[in-house]
Amino acid sequence: MNIDNYSLAGPGQAPHRGAETIVPLDQRMGLQGAETSADPDPEFAQFYGAFMEWIASTAPSPGSIQRYLKQYANAGGELPYKTTQKQMDALTQVMVRMKEQGLEDSETYKEIRVALVSVSSANMFFKEFMQGVFKPSEDEDSRENINW
User: Fold this and answer.
1) Torsion sign (Cα): 14, 20, 21, 27
2) How far is residue 117's CA from residue 62's CA, in Å, rounded to a whole number?
3) Model's pTM, two decimal places?
């Protein structure tokens, strides 16, 4: 049996010590601005404009930000941010856009970050719950008395 060493340097070549690529946390989390400036989404641009108008007219809290996302209707009357996954995506894009505009030190940015953490936690809890429901434990002791 022959096992070849594969790495970023190429097949059969081990990377030099210290040559690993360091990826910033923002890039790993998807908070880099490349995708928003390269391919602007007109639907998101409309949402962002409405969201920033709403932010300017109120003192946002994480709960009010989540409520706004749930009730926001686009031009077609649809509610695009009903699910926690869609809310996470929208808040991430809002944070990217605000960072591009140099607003990452604002109180609003901090409130949006707290809302993102809250929505992410709810999303993780929901996914874990659904996994438990649809993929029960394969422990033989717990399934011992079940007759199918």
Assistant:
1) positive
2) 9
3) 0.64
